Amino acid sequence: xxxxxxxxxxxxxxxxxxxxxxxxxxxxxxxxxxxxxxxxxxxxxxxxxxxxxxxxxxxxxxxxxxxxxxxxxxxxxxxxxxxxxxxxxxxxxxxxxxxxxxxxxxxxxxxxxxxxxxxxxxxxxxxxxxxxxxxxxxxxxxxxxxxxxxxxxxxxxxxxxxxxxxxxxxxxxxxxxxxxxxxxxxxxxxxxxxxxxxxxxxxxxxxxxxxxxxxxxxxxxxxxxxxxxxxxxxxxxxxxxxxxxxxxxxxxxxxxxxxxxxxxxxxxxxxxxxxxxxxxxxxxxxxxxxxxxxxxxxxxxxxxxxxxxxxxxxxxxxxxxxxxxxxxxxxxxxxxxxxxxxxxxxxxxxxxxxxxxxxxxxxxxxxxxxxxxxxxxxxxxxxxxxxxxxxxxxxxxxxxxxxxxxxxxxxxxxxxxxxxxxxxxxxxxxxxxxxxxxxxxxxxxxxxxxxxxxxxxxxxxxxxxxxxxxxxxxxxxxxxxxxxxxxxxxxxxxxxxxxxxxxxxxxxxxxxxxxxxxxxxxxxxxxxxxxxxxxxxxxxxxxxxxxxxxxxxxxxxxxxxxxxxxxxxxxxxxxxxxxxxxxxxxxxxxxxxxxxxxxxxxxxxxxxxxxxxxxxxxxxxxxxxxxxxxxxxxxxxxxxxxxxxx
Length: 646
Description:
Strand order of the largest sheet: 16-17-15-2-25
Number of domains: 4
Distance between the termini: 33 Å
Radius of gyration: 30 Å
């Protein structure tokens, strides 16, 4: 993946999506299948960074895992005893893998080292470690007490009785203990100290253990007992549900973008708590329908979504999607009971507050809550982009903001943790603001045609050839030197420009003549040589893409700036006709001209443009060629409009 992805503004969202497998269920099933007696065929397993780390760990522990293709794997269970007793495991940032393996390996009588990415070494694990030490486990924190990396040594385990673990930091601590304790064969109870956070994830753990033959006795949410003689046994075949947390992004898109948008793989019969996200959308006014294995969301029948106040303990991951959905609601939205966000892939409360503010929201963040007041006007479009903090869920939930603006998502590759092809799947369900891209050689008439087409359709118009001149003019007026790359780039990114058929306005002032002055032309050449300015203007051009549509003329419009343009046109004409047109334009403006030098200049430009090392001028494979040598302006406009309708 690239350093960033620029998402186009969207007009709507609808369709049907088959969800990838649940990360939470996938890693639980993999581990229990490895511990069980017998072979287990796992179908619809999520293939992502997190599950890859678990698969790597199981292989390092001597478990035979065979890929069958199509998301299916065969796991030969080790009967509760891993064959390899000495191993070093790297678990990336996979919390479900790290916490559960810590517990299981602590009771396995071997020597193991567990490490991860730097962020994993910042995520607390002390409460789980202390609980395991109560059982006699020998665990050392190698860098800082209470945090990974860890070293586990063989130890004499004292099972039975009651072991205590805090429940208000991460439900993964309790999950790890519950999954590990059947290995002892002795009745053991786990007592939760404090309020248990993220209860639905414990329900997933209990349901998955039950599928493998271990039934935990539960007294409310405070005490869990593993019966004596418990042992994992393969159920034969396990089908992994779709990921309910991932469903939240698409259900929210349906609620914001019209819909109906249906997700398949989770529904009324799901064991995942995040399916209750649909109930939260309903409280906001969305229309929700639910089947046994699907959920469908549509926008309110009338009006906008409305802000709500909600306890998010039952939907901790999906609640992040409510934070960005709140940008499209009337009134504030308050998300309560989200303290667990602070010990996830990043401090999600702080990160969400920072990035929501970039879009113009007013945000109040507390120890366990987030309050979002949506912008009173349009969402802001930050050139710096939305930072994702190596957190897959931040990248995905902020993609919703593209329902209102062009949006840059930095480090989009982080979605590989749970949903590697997320942005590709998003594109299949959304309808971007349409673009007509018109390119062609110098003096081919692309500016005139593009402006006329835009005026006819009532769309926005972009004259890309004027942007460097406008940047030079805006920098001069701001007192910024043309060689001050960083400051000129900031000016370029924020140009307040409106193009009309016969108009160019900068900050509301007509500047069509001002940008043609010789000194501004010189400044345009200087700023065009600055890489940061070129990058900023690429993004600024994409920001011109606004509803109901955009007509963009200039070099590379259909290849680099808007490669997904609905209609791409490559205008051309004989060099003699183009020279005559340029001559006529100059004479009409009162500028002395001679046809022969104009003809020679155009031939030289054509040669240079076709030989450019970067983005040479050429007709794109999906662009329609239109030779205007014998066509009038009106006929050319009519042809472009006809192609756009088809």
